[in-house]
Amino acid sequence: MPFRTRPDQPRDLVALIESEVRERIEDAVDHVSLEVLVESRRARGLPPPAADSARDRSEYEAGVRAFLERLHADLVPALDPVERRKVEAAAERAGPEPVARLVLAQVALARMVPDYWQRFDAVRLAFTDERLGGVVGRRSPPAESGGERRGRLGRLFAR
Length: 159
Known about the structure:
By secondary structure, this protein is mainly alpha-helical. Helix content is 64%, strand content 0%.
């Protein structure tokens, strides 16, 4: 096989690509949700979320779902009817669990919308500003998504 995979990864190229896109979306959504949660707590003088706290976990999961719903609401209306049906079909593969359905819908969108990550970043900025709007002490603007990171040589030579 011309590409290397981990033992738990799919073996065919289409499934491998879908798996990688899904991982990237899940990581990006986690980052957004954690950023909003941590910054809002910092602004209110509360401690950062704890991994073993059921309440913190619930708050985090609610943030994940809210962001995924916002992404869906902002990106799907721009699609034509055929593309919408493809997104709906992808979401249906996840079964009844709402967050899994929203994630698979985002995977389908990422694979069919050429500027998906730019749109993702625009929604991320709007969502973060809405959730943290007016928060005193917000440290810095959110980092760009991984697609804008410079490579090792670019960092080394400050390009």
